[in-house]
Amino acid sequence: MTASSEEHAAGAAVDLSGAPDWTLFDAPSLVGDSLRFVSGQPDGDRFRVRYFRDAEQHLHARIWFGPETEGPPGHAHGGAVAAVMDEGLGLAAWAAGYAIVVGNLNISFRAMLPIQKVVTLESRVVSVEGRKIMVHGRLFCGDTLFAEGQCLCITIKKENQS
Ligand SMILES: CCCCCCCCCCCCCC(=O)SCCNC(=O)CCNC(=O)[C@H](O)C(C)(C)COP(=O)(O)OP(=O)(O)OC[C@H]1O[C@@H](n2cnc3c(N)ncnc32)[C@H](O)[C@@H]1OP(=O)(O)O
Description:
Elements: E1 23-24, H1 27-31, H2 36-39, E2 47-53, E3 59-65, H3 78-95, E4 100-109, E5 117-129, E6 132-141, E7 144-155
Antiparallel strand pairs: 1-2, 2-3, 3-5, 4-7, 5-6, 6-7
The structure holds tetradecanoyl-COA.
EC number: 3.1.2.2
Membrane topology: Peripheral membrane protein
Domain Thioesterase: 74-144
């Protein structure tokens, strides 16, 4: 089994290792400790998340959806999937050098995502037009696509940056 196909019981160790050409990305050192909603409990029963960058500097993540993300029985809540896409795709814009908030997030849920499973979020900044940064992403495991999203990020006006 690979890191991205293994299923894990709550409380058990979870393998969030990245692909061979990925390097660990330290999100708090870039954006501070405010990302607690999704990635704030690395040993908890909600999400466990580890961010990476690939050789081309695109941001990716390995994510374990724990029992507290449950919506339909045995599967992740759509809001849990959306939260992961919101943080991951917004963070991708920050990692690319843009201080943003998410203005619009469009998600297609393509397959039900079993909980207690490690999946991969891949992202890519696809365009930059003035203050508008478009980031696309997909959440998948092996050949199964669970969700894909388009995230319009807007750079924060100078007067609103803390
Ligand atoms: C402060 C530091 C925080 C650090 C946190 C680190 C977290 C890192 C990780 C992040 C992860 C967490 C991520 C999160 O969870 S971020 C939290 C969730 N997001 C929010 O709460 C954002 C709430 N919205 C706003 O604050 C404002 O509406 C923003 C700032 C987005 C724009 O208001 P602002 O007054 O500044 O700008 P503007 O209205 O002149 O618009 C400018 C341009 O953008 C276009 N446009 C705008 N909205 C939309 C839209 N919905 N669809 C299509 N287009 C839209 C608009 O047409 C215009 O285009 P153009 O006419 O110029 O062509």
